Amino acid sequence: MHTFTLEKPGLFSSLQRIAPPSQVAYGIPFGGPMDRESARQANQLVGNTPSEWVLEMTLVGARIRFEQACVIALTGADMGAMLDGQLVARYQPLSVQAHQRLTLKGAKNGCRAYLAIGGTWQVDPSWTSLGTKALSAGAKLSIAPSTVHATLRYPTPTFSDKVSIPIWPGPEFDHISRAYMAHFFSQRWQISQNSNRVGCRLEGPTGPAVGLTDIISSGIVPGTIQITGSGQPILLTADAQTTGGYPRLGNVLAADVDVVGQLRPGATIRFVYQAIPF
Amino acid sequence: MEHQALGIMSIIPYGDRAALIRFEAQVNALTRQRVRATQRTLEQAGVPGMLAYIPAHTSLTVCFDPTLLSFPALVQTIRSLPLPSAIIEDVHTTWHIPVCYGGNFGPDLETVAAFHKMTATEMIAIHSQQRYEVYLLGFMAGFAYLGPVPTPLPTPRRQTPRVQIPVGSVAIADRQTCIYPSESAGGWQVIGRTPIRLINEHLQPPIMWQVGDRVQFFPIESREWDDWHTKAGLATDWEWLTDN
User: Fold this and answer.
1) Is the confidence metric ipTM above 0.90 for this complex?
2) Which residue among B53, B58, B143 sits closest to A25, beta carbon to beta carbon?
3) Do you find a cis peptide bond into B205, omega within 30 degrees of 0?
């Protein structure tokens, strides 16, 4: 068994994995990595199944001490990762020696970084069965190591701070005023500081009346854009409540929810209407 | 109508990995029964690609894997669902939950009773004699909206929400009642507390109840609190709280 210690947790770090959201009927959020594509790639780089656990770090990364040698990979945001003081690359496998320290700092590009370690993580299912749990300083994590013959590399992406995202009309699309709709699609919305895994609060100028204040509570899926009474949109993501009472204007599609997962406070989004193809 | 017997009015795409099944917009027991029956029938049908369900008052969100199941195929499947016997049986669990009302456990009990022009004793009787239905799970893990509370008027929320409501607090607002499964901020009126833990990360599922279950509260004295609390802490499941 290999162990490693989260000496410094960073701003917000948690264990995540891609799994079917079977618990949502109980009011437990969908969860999972905010940028699933990066999480999948991190796992593939170390020869893990795409749905193996990864460490997700937000805006400011962690410092990890590895007790044993292993193979790791970093994807997602560029946090200036260093192994014992030496800069290391993302999107390729890295050999780590026993007792080395991996230190990640503030994200220069993107919002969330992913660390995969070659092997099977020993995580008690109870750790996340009620939803995301933040890791604290000193947390010890274990892995049953695997032999990794890692030769894969992916091109290193750049995450834009200014994006355009297509959306499908949501369930209450037809009940929202046309004036508000015009306002919504013409704005470049800014990600507020008050954004996290639950969702991104979007800031922009006050627009016309929404026309619909609330709905009979109904299900929420990641990517749903709710419009609150004040006219400010909330783009809900992995840890959102599973039901809500605000009108649902539209839905970001699954692949683009990954893009949202890499948007930092201050980044901007413009939404583009896309007709549902059915 | 997409399915007469189940009362399904429409099925629409909801993003590219979910669909929203809408029932008649009547918030009542029949609609909730139809939502549950549809969920159960779909679960039993074992359709490849179906991942999860979110039942609500007048809708059912279904999550699916679009690489295994297309939206049009899902609609066809729903249209051809057989009418389940479950809609007639309405199988559910009934939970019996001990509550210590008033005092430090229920700081808003007196205010709420006064609002309804009752004594605290009468308020406790009204709250504990009703058999509630779990309408919806949401807000936080294990949080259930239970109803209806049979007061003549809807109970207003607190003017100032509390920053910290203790775990297990039993509260009411409008015509619903709830138990806070974890410490939380909230604006509902806290009338009592239960020593029962509603969530347990070591159990599967980790939540005691589900939509459609019935709940009956029963008053306990503050001197009984410790015994109940110990019993709840030692329990390895929730069976002991059911009718069985």
Assistant:
1) yes
2) B53
3) yes
Contact B137 A252 (CB under 8 A): no
How do strand B214-219 and strand B94-101 relate by DSSP bridges?
parallel
Q: Please, which residues 17-76 of chain A have a Cβ atom closer than 8 Å to chain B?
A: 20-28
What would the pLDDT profile of A132-183 be if each residue is shown by its tens digit? 999 999 999 999 988 877 789 999 999 999 999 999 999 999 999 999 999 9
List the 126-155 stretch of B: residues with Cβ below 8 A of A. 136-145
- Whether the CB-CB separation of B146 and B133 falls below 8 Å is answered with yes
B102 neighbors B114 (Cβ within 8 angstroms): no
Picking from A25, A217, A220, the nearest residue to B52 by CB comes out as A25
To the nearest whole angstrom, how far is the Cα of B221 from the nearest Cα of chain A?
A: 31
Question: CA dist A1 to A4, A141, A144, Å?
Answer: 10, 10, 5
Structure tokens at B72: 């049009």
| B29-45 and B71-79 helices, crossing angle to 10° | 110
Interface test with A, best of B31, B137, B208, B238 (most A CBs within 10 A): B137
B54 to A26: CB separation less than 8 angstroms, yes or no:
no
Give the tokens for residue B243.
């009718």
For the entire predicted model, the pTM comes to: 0.94
Residues with Cβ within 8 Å of B27's Cβ and at least 6 positions away in sequence, in order, are: A216, B57, B58
Nearest-CA neighbor of A125 among B172, B46, B5, B204? B204
If phi > 0 it is left, if psi is from -120 to 50 it is alpha, else beta; for residue A267 that is: beta
Cα B56 to the center of its chain, rounded Å: 10
